[in-house]
Amino acid sequence: MIYLKVRQQGRLVNHKRIERLYAEAQLQVRRRTRKKVPMGERQPLVRPEAANDVWSMDFVFDRSAEGRAIKCLTIVDDATHESVAIVPERAISGQHVTRILDHLAATRGLPQVIRTDNGNEFCGRAMLMWAHAHTVTLRLIEPGKPNQNAYIESFNGRLRDECLNEHWFLTLAHAQAIIEAWRREYNEERPKKALGGLTPAAYARHLVRKSVTVTPGLQI
Fold it and tell me: Cβ(33)–Cβ(140) under 8 Å?
């Protein structure tokens, strides 16, 4: 990622040199060890071709300095890998989730499909009624199979390793400010190899340009 950011600035440098300097400066983020489980049958998770086709949602938990819980609703656009929203609160109910989605609808629009696990906030009456009213399809993964929601799982891992584990939040407001700054940096400044070296925001603009066709002779 650092190599791509350096190239983004117009500097020509060998990726092996970046890797050597990265190691010498001990910039590696310690990764969490994962428990190995027997590999079952996996279904390919196909990335949508347009923004707002499919969003993935999940929760990530942390604590502030006084020991009180922080519950973060994370929302990712599967096509662009954009972090649509990260909402840290003390508690988030199904009704609260629908209010967050209504706010996003006014600024970004709504997806055709929302993929989640089987948490009460996503399967409750409030969410079902909201999805029906807005003609949004709720797609629930199978219990115990987080690989079916791989985009949000990967994003949550980065959020925890690079933001939550790196900061000591004094208050909820402090957490909200730090997490939102990290979200903006993730969307607008971090190139991703999976997106051809573009940032999620730049890739979203690329998809828009790609989908627009101009009729010959038509003046805009």
Answer: no
Q: Is 165 helix (H, G, I), strand (E, B) or coil?
A: helix
> How many alpha carbons fall within 13 Å on the CB side of residue 99?
6
Alpha carbons 153 and 141: distance in angstroms, whole number = 12
What are the C-alpha distances in Å from 94 to residues 107, 123, 134, 155?
21, 8, 15, 22
Q: What is the pLDDT of residues 139-187, one digit of tens each?
A: 999 888 888 899 999 999 999 999 999 999 999 999 999 999 999 999 9
* Angle, helix 150-162 to helix 172-188, in steps of 10 degrees: 120
| Alpha helix ranges (H) inside 12-164 | 15-24, 94-107, 120-123, 125-133, 150-162
Q: Are residues 71 and 89 in contact, defined by beta-carbon separation less than 8 angstroms? A: yes
Tell me which residue of 65, 11, 24, 50 sits closest to 210, measured CA to CA: 50
pTM score > 0.85 for this model?
no
Give the count of beta carbons closer than 10 Å to the beta carbon of residue 133. Answer: 9
**Cα 117 to Cα 122: distance, rounded to the nearest angstrom:** 7
pLDDT (tens digit, 9 = 90+) per residue, 74-91? 999 999 999 999 999 999
